[in-house]
Amino acid sequence: MSLKFDENLPIYIQIMDYIKKKVIIGEIKEGDKLPSVRDLASELKVNPNTVSRVYQELEREGLTYTQRGMGTFITEDKDSLYNLKKTMARDIVSKFIYQIKELNFGKDEILTLLKEELGREGD
């Protein structure tokens, strides 16, 4: 894993978001074992306590579970993974809407712009 940190956002949140994105796009699959706290901390060049916090928060959110003596694994609960995907998408859309409204675009203009851009995609 390689990650370039933004000094305006706590590192543990950036690592959490990075792992979540990897799960959503399928680079980390349900049931996969995550690297040990020490291994990931070494790889990312962060304090092991930071990675430990990341794993605790991911478990609190239901994205991971820990098996004592075996490690931390990604949940196999498809509903949790789908909800994570929807939440992340909503966050992106909310930021987009906020930023485009700052440019004085109205709802109809935003929809037109989105349709134009989606048309370019060829999907």
From TrEMBL:
<dbReference type="InterPro" id="IPR036390">
    <property type="entry name" value="WH_DNA-bd_sf"/>
</dbReference>
<dbReference type="Pfam" id="PF00392">
    <property type="entry name" value="GntR"/>
</dbReference>
<keyword id="KW-0238">DNA-binding</keyword>
<feature type="domain" description="HTH gntR-type">
    <location>
        <begin position="9"/>
        <end position="77"/>
    </location>
</feature>
<dbReference type="GO" id="GO:0003677">
    <property type="term" value="F:DNA binding"/>
</dbReference>
<protein>
    <submittedName>
        <fullName>DNA-binding transcriptional regulator YhcF (GntR family)</fullName>
    </submittedName>
</protein>
<keyword id="KW-0805">Transcription regulation</keyword>
<dbReference type="InterPro" id="IPR000524">
    <property type="entry name" value="Tscrpt_reg_HTH_GntR"/>
</dbReference>
<dbReference type="InterPro" id="IPR036388">
    <property type="entry name" value="WH-like_DNA-bd_sf"/>
</dbReference>
<keyword id="KW-0804">Transcription</keyword>
